[in-house]
Amino acid sequence: GGQIFFSNRTNNGFLSLRTTNSGGSLSTALAVDGNGLFYVNAGYGSAALAYGVRCWVSFNGNNGSIFASGGMTSVTRNAAGDYTANFNFTMPDANYATSGSGMEVNGINSGTTYQAAYCLAGSTGMATTACRFLIANIDGNNNVDGAIVHFMAIR
Questions:
Q1: Which of 84, 118, 128, 141 has the greatest count of CB atoms below 10 A from its CB?
Q2: Residue 8 buriedness (CB in 10 A; 0-12 / 13-18 / 19+)
Q3: Backbone angles phi, psi at 122, to 5 degrees
Q4: Are strands 72-79 and 113-119 parallel, antiparallel or unpaired?
Q5: Each residue's pLDDT expressed in tens, for the chain with a length of 155 residues
Q6: How far apart are CA 32 and CA 15, in angstroms?
Q7: pTM of the shown model
Q8: Across the chain, how many H-helices and E-strands are there?
Q9: What are the angstrom distances between the C-alpha of 127 and each of 55, 124, 144?
């Protein structure tokens, strides 16, 4: 069993979904507070603030063509291993986290040569509508085009 519960806790209402745990008590599984913040109990023992992946993309690093994505309009290939991921929304600010990786599938070590991804700092890198990032060989300093590149922004 379970219930949907609305409360006006300290003048900051929230909506929650409660489920019956193994001990027979109700526990909060999901909640949204009055500020629109989302909380989830995904095995933590209690509902904790969740931070979502705002956008993600998997693309061909040789030309920027997108295989699959969410929250992206396009990827621009600026130079070898240098890309700009363009969001289909505007972040509230440029204080978000990113992650990415690349993989070579056509080279000598086909399927096993991984690269590291990192964003450029400042106005040339992280903006509210796009993020410019680089893919470089882990064992070297040169930027490279990954045959498959992945990027995401979390906030």
A1: 84
A2: exposed
A3: 75, -165
A4: unpaired
A5: 555 655 655 445 677 777 777 777 777 788 888 788 888 887 777 788 888 899 999 999 989 999 999 999 999 999 988 999 999 999 999 899 898 888 876 554 455 455 666 777 665 688 999 999 888 877 666 788 888 899 999 98
A6: 5
A7: 0.74
A8: 0, 13
A9: 14, 8, 23
